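Archive transcription. Copying these from loose printouts into the bound notebook so they stop getting lost. Printout 1 of 2:
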Amino acid sequence: MNHQQSLTEQCAIFRDLYADYQADHVEQETKQWMEEHLYQCGNCQEWITLGGTSQTAGEDQHEPGESFSVQQTSSVHSSSLTKEELKTIRTAKRMLWLGIGLVTALSVWVAFWFYF
């Protein structure tokens, strides 16, 4: 695997995880890897500068035969979801985690109430 293909795969992973990174929903190791990648990758820096959803000119340099290239991933995300829809999805994720937390806390409280 050459360096350009490796960088493309890393960019795809970075961009897939970026929304969770912004919401602080990634592990510390992942966060550190993402920060290192961003420091080294001009294409991802430009991608974030442009809003984190649109293609950049640098992505056109990737080989067309790469099946899961950043170019393909970005076009799917940017064409199928608007910013408002992404915001709604993020809000729904937060509400889901809040609900899970509340159910867990309630379960613990009930367990203590029954057994003590």
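Printout 2 of 2:
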Amino acid sequence: MLKDNLLWKVGKCSEVNFWTDPWLPNCERLQDNALGKISLVDSATPLKNFVLTKGDWDLNKLQTLLPTLETVLHVFRDCDQVKPVWLYFKKSATGSFLCVNNSSIWLVENLVKNGADVILETWTVLFAAVLDRIWSNRNEFVFSNGNHSIKRIIHQSEDMARDF
């Protein structure tokens, strides 16, 4: 059994082809999912060409290939798959948690406790639990062909917050 939120390491990026090798678990080749035709030159591109020296993605190169990159706010708050979760918990939220357009401010405002307010403390724990469940659910969906369940995210988040 593995812990939640573990990362999968590709290995030597120079030996993995970005488009033609099935380097994502439980996923066919990216080439088979491309929105347009991939040139012969591009089809021979190794994965290392899209990774910076410290191992982070080269977002500038990826943006030229992909129509849009997801933002933190989109993944955790604004995506149609998770927005209903936040709308369910809206009655518990403090402040304007759906209106802030800066991910850092949104996270700090909802995770940092200012004072000894029991309602605020309960919200910060619940907020953290929801983030964890959204991330875990998304990874299960992407990497294990799991199903996406808003109800499951809600119930698991409530259970985690209650157990804390």
